[in-house]
Every structure is written in C-alpha cells, then in structure tokens.
Amino acid sequence: MLWNLATKWIGAIKTSIYIYVSTIITVILSVLILHEKITEISIIGTVLILIGLVISQKN
C-alpha cells in the first residue's frame, strides 16, 4: 500500500531510488548505532547499488 502511495506522489523512478538508497543507509546506521563490522559483502553490495543508481540516472 505504501509503495503505491509513494509511486503516486513522487513517481516510480524516484520511489525505486529511495528503496535502493535505504539499503545503503541501513548498512551505515548498523555500523554507527549497532557497532557492527562492515563486511566485504556489504561493501561490494553498496558499490553495486551506487553503480546501478548512477547508470540508471544517466538514461
């Protein structure tokens, strides 16, 4: 329901961007608040998400 509402308000592309960025914010906050270690997998995932966002914004 929230996805449909957000899509109606700001559009599908911006809604998708916020969903991908929320994953990166989760990794950062887990390190800062929960003192979790950053793993290689989380770094690779963050880089891949950022690369995907850059590529999607170029088109």
From TrEMBL:
Query: Which InterPro entries does this entry report, sorted A to Z?
Result: EamA_dom, EmrE-like
Q: Where are the transmembrane segments?
A: 17-34, 41-57
Q: Which residues form the EamA domain?
A: 1-55
Keyword Transmembrane helix among UniProt keywords? yes
Q: Which Gene3D superfamilies match?
A: 1.10.3730.20
Q: Per UniProt, which keywords does this protein have?
A: Membrane, Transmembrane, Transmembrane helix
Q: Which Pfam families match?
A: EamA (PF00892)
Q: Which family does it belong to?
A: Belongs to the EamA transporter family.
Protein name in the entry = EamA family transporter
Species for this entry? Anaerostipes amylophilus
